[in-house]
Amino acid sequence: MLIGEVVGSVVATQKDPQLESHKLLVVQVRSHENQPRDQYVIAVDSVGAGPGDLVLYATGSSARQTNITKDKPCDAVVMAIVDSWDVSGKNVYEKWSGA
């Protein structure tokens, strides 16, 4: 699993029929200290995430393990919305505080 922030969405009117009705999100990769990296992933949303949410996502064959993405042509999936995040006893993110 990897961590990132939802920074946008992708609209594709022409896509594989297996991906129809699935929301595509632009996720900016974060470091272990919650710093943004200059790296982005397009992921299928399986949990109802939106702009500004910090999320856990999986890539590669792991992305095809959720009920929504099973056996579908995707390489990344958002599978959790992060509420809080601690590293070595230090809180680096708290959803409700805006940290």
Automatic annotation (TrEMBL):
Highest taxon above the source species? Bacteria
- Family annotation (PROSITE patterns): BMV
Chain segments annotated as coiled-coil in the UniProt record: none
| CDD domains assigned | EutN_CcmL
Alphabetical GO CC annotations of the entry are: bacterial microcompartment
What is the recorded name of this protein? Answer: Carbon dioxide concentrating mechanism protein CcmL
What is the protein's major site of localization?
Answer: other
Q: Which subcellular locations apply to this protein?
A: Bacterial microcompartment
Q: Does the keyword rRNA processing apply?
A: no
Q: Is Transferase a UniProt keyword of this protein?
A: no
Annotated keywords: Bacterial microcompartment
